[in-house]
Every structure is written in structure tokens, then in C-alpha cells.
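Review the following:
>
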Amino acid sequence: MKQSKTLIPTMREIPSDAEVKSHQLLLRAGFIRQNASGVYSYLPLGKKMLRAIEDIVREEMDDAGAVELLMPALQQAELWQESGRWQTYGPELMRLKDRHSREFALGATHEEVITALVRDEVKSYKRLPLTLYQIQTKFRDEKRPRFGLLRGREFVMKDAYSFHASQESLDEVYDRLFQAYSNIFRRCGLNFRAVIADSGAMGGKDTHEFMVLSEIGEDTIAYSDTSTYAANVEMAPVVNKYDPSTETQKELEKVETPNAKTIDSVAAFLNMPAEQCIKTLVFKVDEEMVVVLARGDHEINDIKLKNLLNAGTVEMAEEEEAAKLFGASFGSLGPIGLPADVKIFADNAVRSIANMVCGANQNGWHYVNANAGRDFHVTEFADLRFILEGDPSPDGEGMIKFAKGIEVGHIFKLGTRYSEAMNAVYLDENGRTQPMIMGCYGIGVSRLVAAVAEQFNDENGFVWPANLTPFDVHVIPVNVKDEAQVKAADTIYEDLRQAGMTALLDDRPERAGVKFTDSDLIGLPIRVTAGKKAAEGIVEIKVRKTGEVVDVPVEDVVRTVRSLQAEL
């Protein structure tokens, strides 16, 4: 491709609204342009990157036994109503009406469409298992689109769905696609971890996220410092063994704590350690008010609470709602003296504390020497807190450390969540009707472009890996008015193409400095420069990653490039 004939609008300045390196460089190097908040055009270089990643995804999905199809982005509301998600998915679902006032949604995901499709076409266990996938644009009305392609309102996604007659079949395909995903991210050269995750609005039980390790990641990964264990911090269980306190229980005492509304301020006022104090939080769990207790230096994990209670929704109560129940404001709440029908759940760490400090349900007052069992009743103790760095790893090997991660893939065992709701059934070998068992597997393809961009760059621009580069070689005649340089560059360009390599020929009438700056910014793995020695039949080859430079005869360029590629 001749650079003068394509669209690569590079930028010298860092865009003011680009917060992270990948967003900055993708804009500056002319890979993408923003059309609206969270909506981007992929320019020729960006499209080539997207296609290279799509090719890897297709190869691995096909090898895993999945079959590609394409479903509509415009989805009937009736399908979402069948699954029950039309009412529950939230404002991220882009809804619209056609000229006949029929309701539709732009596809945020395709569980409903694929379930209806397979429901109508597959009737017998003999057609199962079946795994189908697509690569398609998705739409989600993100409240705060940010970080360029990492969180947009329109994005490219690979989503796959598997249908089974048995749990064993689902487990087998899940493991196969787990390996396919690992292969995809490894082939993209990414530093990633597969982590245990929460299924969220998707439903289902077993699920893993694939996280690219990055300081700009929005998710926190808890991982073992000596084993392969990794989990989203929301899902990592706490396995600490809390020894019961041997301290003698003291007489309950109510004390005034003026202006002390936080654990730290209460602990300081009473000259007590924070771990001797108890946080009292109020949650609305499927509209029922419940009380949750945690040690003062711990934080309650609402995902664990949701899973413990098998709840549909869990959210913090408003202060006005809590005041009606407790008769006091946040900062003075406690478990003593509550109505008998109020359920109290406590994290396991609370069980081991004797003579604790808690709110007295009177503004500006606390109890000291409170004890569970004697002064208040706990409905159930459970693991309800977030894991902390330094806690034992749940697999029994090593200690927990934290890292930030960018989610690039997510796989779920959905079970019969959608097939039962949408009557996707088959006849088993005994002629009985059974709901199909489902799995779901997603990869953010356009997000992968940004994740790769985050990891493959330096102070001058991109440093693309050889298997993802938009072009194999950048060919640059320094002066397009110099006949020898132009001739050498044209010869090399054609030789590379004949050898099956892709090349970008910078035939623009620009200064050498502009061409070299743009070349470093674009980041192709190898650059061939026809300069002053072109009249002698000699050109310069430079490796972008290492900076290695060699002079070679024009006729040896293809051989030398192949040799260098083998080392990349």
C-alpha cells in the first residue's frame, strides 16, 4: 500500500481528552477517530489491526469446534421480554421504536436471539452439542465512556453460545473454549490471567474472566504470589481462620461519642483499635432490609452477600430508610435492640471479637463491651468481606497480592437460565422434553486492540508484534525527488509483495524527519530506508523493537527481512 493513497492522519500533539496511552497513540498514529462519545471510526490501520485479531479469534474458535454465523444487531423487544431482561437489564440497553411503534433494542448481547434461533431449529438430543459464534458490533449506552476503545458505546465483540444435553457436555466445551481463549490472548502477546468471576446480569454459576494486567485496568485481581490462583477481588473467598476470643466478657456500657461518625474517629475517641469496632451496614436485598456487620478494618462485599442470599438485587439503603429502622443516622447504627424480624448477617471475623464497640442507634452514642449472642443475635455468620493483600490464598498456596486488570474475555456456564425462560427444549433419548443447557463465551475484539496497544509501545509510538502488525515492513525513500532512492524503494516494495509480505511505501513528499517520526509512531516491526547509499544499491534496515540497524544490498532485503522476522 502506498502511503499517499491511504488515510493515515498522524497527530503531533497528545489529544487533551485522551487519558491513557493506548487511546493517545491510536489517535495520534491515525488508527481511529472519534465520531461521538464512546463511538469510533476505524481508519485503515485500525481496521487492519482489528482484522488481524479477528483472524486469530476465528482460527482458535474454529479449532475448538465452534461454527460462525451472524445475527442481527436490531433485536425485537419480545425476545428480551421472554427472558425477563427487558425490565432488568438497565439503562445500558439502547431501546428504540420503528415506524409502527414496535419496540426494539440494539444488541448489547445475543443470548435471547441465539436461544430463540436454536429453539426453533433444534428439536432432538441428536443435534447436540452445538456451539455457534459471531463477530459483530454491539451497543451499550455506557454512563461514562472512557479510555477510547476500552469502554465505548459501540464496540466489536466475539460472542459464542453452546447448547448441550448434559452438564458433562457443557463442562467439556467450557474447558475447550477456556483453552481457546488462553491461546488467543497468548497469540496476541498479552500478559493476562484467567480469574474466577461473578456472572452479574448474565446469570449462571461458573464463570471466568480473562484479564490483561495493566495499571489502567478498572478491575482488581487477587492472585497468589506462589501459585496460579487468580480471582476478581469480588469473588475471592477469605479462608482466614479466626480463633475465638478468650477474653472475659465485660458489662455492656453506653457512652457518648460526639461528632464521631466513622470507624476511625470512633476508634480514636475511645482509644480502641479499629478491629475492635464493628461496622453496621444496612442493605436492601430484594426490597427487604437486612443488617450486615463487619470488623472495623474490613469492607463488606455486596457480591458475596448477594450470592449468600441468592438475591436478585442488593443495594445500600438510603440514610432516610435506615433512620426509620434504627432511629439514628449513619455513623451511630448498631445491632442491639433491633426489631426481632430484622435479619442480621455478620462476616466471620466478627465471631472472634469480644467486647466490641458498635453504634447505639442514637446519634452521638456507642456501646462498648458488646458481645454477639449475649447482646444481639446474628442470623448467620459467613464470608462477607473483601479479601485483602496478605491474606492466605484460597487454594492454600502462598499469600494474596493485588493487580489491576483490563477484562478482555468472559466465559459463563449459563445452565438453563435462558432455555427455561424461553422454552428452548429438546427431546432426549427417552422421548422426554428437557431444557437445553447453555454456555456463553465473549471476547471484546475492539477492546483487544486497545489492550495490545497498551502493552506494545514506547516513548516514540507503537511497537507492534509481528503477528498483529498492520503491515510487515515500512519502506521509506528519504527524498522522493531522488531517482535512485525512489527506484530502490519501488523495487524493494515489489520484491516484498512478491515474497508474500505486506508493505507500506511512504511515497509522500515529506521531509525525512516527518517520515521517520510517523514511522516510529505507527510502529511497524521493520523499516527499510532508501537513503544516500541507494545509488550504490545499499539500503538501511531497522528493527523497531530493538533499534538494530543493518545496511544490506537491495537484492538481499527480502532474505534479511525474513531472517529478522524469525527473531521477532
Remarks:
- The chain has three domains: 3-237+401-453, 253-382, 471-567.
- The chain has 15 helices and 31 strands.
